[in-house]
Design a protein that fits this description.
The complex is a heterodimer of chains A (284) and B (261).
Chain A (H helix, E strand, L loop, with lengths): L3 H29 L18 H8 L1 H34 L5 H13 L3 H11 L4 H8 L13 H25 L5 H7 L4 H30 L2 H6 L7 H12 L2 H28 L6
Helix pairs in contact in A: 2-3, 3-7, 3-9, 4-7, 5-7, 7-9, 8-9, 9-12, 11-12
Chain B lengths: L2 H27 L17 H8 L1 H35 L4 H9 L6 H15 L5 H25 L4 H8 L4 H30 L4 H4 L7 H10 L5 H25 L1 H4 L1
Chain lengths: 284, 261
Amino acid sequence: MLAAKSARGLVAPAVLLTAGVFLAPFLLLLAMSLWSQPPGSLMLDVTPTGEHYRRITTDSYYMTGLARTIWLSLATTAICAALALPLAWWIVRRAGRFRGLVLAVVLIPMVCGALLPTLGIVNLIGPLGVLNGTLKSLGLIDRSWKLLGTQAGILIGLVHAFLPLMVLPLVAAMDRLPRDAEGAAMSLGARRRAVWTRIILPLCAPGLLAGSALVFCATLTAFVTPLILGQGKIPTFATMAYQQASLVLDWPFASALAVVMLAILAAIGALGWAIRQALPGAAR
Amino acid sequence: MKLSGVLWALLTGAVLLFLLAPVAVLIFSAFDDGKFFRFPPRELSLRWFGAALDSPEYRGALINSTIIACVSTAISVTAGLMAATGLSRGGLKSRALVELLLLAPLTLPLVVWAIALLQIYARLGISGTFGGLVLAHAVITLPLSVRILLATLAGIDPQMEEAARSLGARPLRAFLRTTFPLALPGVLTAAVFSFLVSFNDVVVTTFIAGARWMTFPVRMYSQLRGQGVDPITLAIGAMIVALILAAVIAGELKFKWSRRL
């Protein structure tokens, strides 16, 4: 056991870095979103104004963008859940000695960053890409299927990027399931479907909930994938914030957009927490 | 095998194929001889790999990315190991709170942070500098190191280090001779993941990188946003992805990386 003084000394650098460089900017962001920047100048006016928030809530460009982003996030979360459930179950119950290798494949989108897989997806779904090329040479289509620059293209990219966030918590949750639970249910006469809906899904609900929250939040704030696969034609809330901060250079307005994103994430976090409390077995 | 088993395996196979496809296509498309990738390609060649290795402008961005990733990984793993040791061996009363604070960057949105950081860096005049980039990268990789190393230290018996102390070894020496060698696989895992996160990051870096310290992903991102990708970028991307793939498969088979995340 270390003395409390040396333990504090060991923890100090990491705490200073995280609190000073990571958390402090979030507080400053709240202040900066109330400042304003006169048109055509980079000078800041620090008299507090709610103008940016008014603009976001009244301008239909931003509200449609927000609605589109929430719809994309919900769709991505649902598709990820649908794909991850069978995969995670297979990893836990049937993969055997391939488990490690399959998990390494699952980790690919996480360890390659946002950009490299997206570059691959451009060549996969583009008008001259692998998918269209294959379908054409098989004679199934004669004109390219347009995916780049559409919401479908963005969905493919988002699902690919964030699927691991759903698979890993599910694998952890399913690993904790007793192996004989299904056998017991089936010996008492339950059918396959009932085993899933009454045994497996309820017991994995916390993992599914954690994965859903992670995927939803990641999708809501993603801007690299939507910008590249949407080819700039489909603005989402995060790409708008990116454009304001990096290209338009209206930083106070970008800050307000960022604060709105943060508020939505906080609401999602609170909702997730409430659902978690309502789940059976939450107290344990 | 029953029909349901076959269906299950097919479904799983399809999902795995979907996970692998973008990376496989990226590697394959780098072998296309043409200036723009099309499938099926007219001719395959190694031409763009050769061009990639000869091109000095890309080498600059790659070297920048590597230097920034190495320095920030060193900071992240050192601070992370210190913090994990203090937390798991120190008996601090505020342990839960400190852990929550240190792991917060994993759940808070990086874009939101980057938009704030951009403005603070501009005010301090460190936007686009080496120090500014390393600081940002050290902060986003630190929580990963802390989490991996906390899990690692939880599996190591502290009594060995205490025995070394009671036999007269000084604290640092006792740590380096007992706990550290046992924690080495975890330290290595933390280092590799920190390096990968820093090397690949575009979400934060695109806001704060400048012309002097342009990283490879930021360069590629602005290409993708603009005129499209040139085949040299494709070839470099393919080589990076192949390296990462080899490292991750080796790490998973040897150190069970997926369990430490």
